[in-house]
């Protein structure tokens, strides 16, 4: 699958995508925006600040700071200029250690997405708190839940060939990734 092939590129881009913290809730994706109307919102329900970067094949992302207690970040589905995927990297530190990733690739009329725990430590704050993805189209789009403490979550990539964790949805879907206590179902 495309995620397996681009995983190495995502890992190398992590070192390139750093900047000063910016407290924003959404991002104007300009010329790389897709016109599908769908996208993802990431909600910080944790009791600490989350740092995130939306990375394509270029180091075009500024670090976004989500403060504790429900601050969110939204992004419309966008295209990677090289045809690969987008990775939204989330960390509890601005140095991108212990990273949870929400990855997606737009191939109209489908958005392929996954959660990746590959770059998270065994004692990750994200694992301790739990996280879950839901959508506004549960009939055509699967959800994914990693309950608090689940170090072997079947709904996320744990190693690069964990392809059962990739999902496909209509590209008009709006998804929400809840980080923290409200994600425990």
Automatic annotation (TrEMBL):
Give the stretches traversing the membrane: none
Please state the span of the N-terminal signal peptide per the UniProt entry: 1-19
Quote any Pfam family the record assigns.
Answer: Bys1
What keywords are assigned to this protein? Signal
Q: Which InterPro entries match?
A: CetA-like (IPR006771), Osmotin/thaumatin-like_sf (IPR037176)
Name of protein: Extracellular thaumatin domain protein
